[in-house]
Every structure is written in C-alpha cells, then in structure tokens.
Write the structure tokens for this entry.
Amino acid sequence: MSIPSYDLVVVGAGIVGAACAFEAARAGLTVAVVEATHPGGGATGAAMGHLVALDGSPAELALCRYSLALWRELAPSLPGSVHYREAGTIWLASSESDLVEARHKQARLEREGIPSTLLGPDELSKAEPALRPGLEGGLLVPGDGRLDPVAATEFLLGETVRFGGTIYAGQGATGIEEGTVLRGKQASLTAETVLIAAGVDSGRLLKEIPVRPRKGQLLRIEPMPLSLDHQLVELGYGASIRTSEAISVAFNVHPASDGSWTVGASREWGSTDTTTSPSTVERILRRAERFLPSLGHATVAKSWAGLRPAMPDHLPWIGPLPGRKGVWVATGHEGLGITCSLGTARLVVDGLLGRPSPVPRDPYLPDSTRAQWPNSPPAEER
C-alpha cells in the first residue's frame, strides 16, 4: 500500500494547526492534518476566545496586531456559529499606579497603530454599570474581539478540506522522522515539510522544543441580571503572565452571547492534569468579585482547566527547527494561540513559499538560545 505524500503535514488540530493548514491549502499546497483526538480538543477547547492585543514585548504586540487585522479580514467569511464580535477590551485601573500603567499601555499600542481611549471613572461607569464604584478608570481598546475557538477551528479545517486538504483524526503522531510522520507502528505520512503545532505535546514529539504546560482554570457564571458589553481585564493581568509564582490569579471576564459570563483566569506551573481545584476556582471568583460585586450572588454553572503551551521568553516558536531538515514548529503561544493563530499561519506559509512578511519573523524563529528556562523553576518543578 502506498504511503500518502503531501507538501505539508500539520501535526495538531488546535486552532494554530488548523490556521496553518488553512493558509497553506488556500495557497495551493497539498496539506494533511494529523490529530490524536478531535479538532480543538486541547488548549483550544479550554480557551476563553478573547482576541486581544497584548503588549508584554514589542514582538508579542506586533504578532497580535497583525493577527487581529487578519481576523477582521476573515470575519465576513466566518459562519454565525463562530460568534465573532469586535466588542473591545477595557483594561481596568483600580489605583493611581494602574492609571500610570494604562497611559504607558496606550503609548505602546499607539506605536503599533492600535487605537485606544483612556476612560475616567464616570466614563467607565457609563460603559459598564455592573463594575463597582471607586475604580480609577480604564483603557478601552475597541479593536479587540472574541469568538468561539472550537467553532473557529472547525471552520478553518472545513476550509482546508474545501481547498483539497485531508484531516486524519483519532490517531496522533507517535514520532517524527525526516519527511515522515509516524502514526502507530505501520501507518505513516510523508511530506516535504512537517509542521509541529501540537501545543504542550510538541515537546513530547521532539525534545528540542522547550514547551512547558501552564495550567489555567476558568469558570462560567449562569446568566446574570446585569449585562456586560466588553471584555474586562485588570491591568495587573500582564504581570500575572510573567510571574514565577506557582499559582497566580488575575481578573478577566468574557460576556458570552447567551448572557453567561466566562470568568478567569489562573496560571499554574508544574501541573499536567486538567482537573479543577475548588480552592483556585474560589480564588478566581473572589478576585472577580472585587470588580463585579454582583458575582457574590452568582451561580457557577461550570469550571474547567486547560494546559497553555508556554515558552521561556513568552514568545512562540514559529519557523524551521534547527538540525531537523524539513521540520517546522508553530507552538508556545501560551494564552495567545487564539489571537495569534492567523498571524502565525501567515508567517509559516510566507516562510515556506519564500514570500516577504509584513511582520519580521526573526523574534519567533526556533533557536537554542531561546530554549533555556530560568535556573529557578517554579515551586512544583523543584
């Protein structure tokens, strides 16, 4: 029996892998996607669905900005099931120091051409009456959006198939050799290029990829009498991403189209399971109650956890893997896989086809100098 051969085999059918397959297929490459379980079954399925311009570094913000523009470009083609909406984010300031950070954040966004507006206490209260009185203000970023990550993944894979691609689900990759993806003892696929986009499992397939799981827990609140129009995030959220604390919690709430709220979020090093912790869920809820007092009377309908694929410098690896001919990587986005999936895909395909990219690719290229984790790992890993 002949072994199927493709220009590109993508390992992983989360939203990053799906986006890369979609972009490659519509560029005319023959594409296959290999997924161990079902599309969007890993970190994608556990994600909040926030499309956000994060500015932890210039490279992070540049990829976010580029990807957000691509989402807007794709939006007219998205089916209703994706629930794409450009609702905007308000970054909340609860202190004078937060207001200083809001101004710095606005300046960083402005350098990338991303509009934002500083809100005073009265303007903030009018924009979101459910917030507690006494907040110092906020920064509105109107171009941020939200969507259903699994539905978006399914759409991208459906488009991949429409452009001639093939999806192999239910039996994941067990090994990567030059030009070959092994699937069990006998089944395999060959390709000119193999792209590893398997999230936290990428490091299991190839030890050179220094991805680590960073667990996150979320909870869903049943529909509330008060509505929210924006994604709300506290200005300390960015610091929680870069902390080395074993477990950190920062306020982030996502209003869904059915009136429910998704509330987060936690970050936890050293855990590889996706069970929820009642104590962490309680911390998330109490943190959120500081900003939305009505949550003190809320009913938690559901809680869940996922594993974000994190890298030492908080930037994804996107590009060819040194020392592995024909092997490329697109992983390590941590909490930005949903936002940055389309930008990542465009960078991958630009690189494969030798096209120029509007965003410099160098900051994301796989490199052993970017592979070193700090000498003092989080507590659970010591």
User: Anything to note?
Assistant: The radius of gyration is 20 Å.
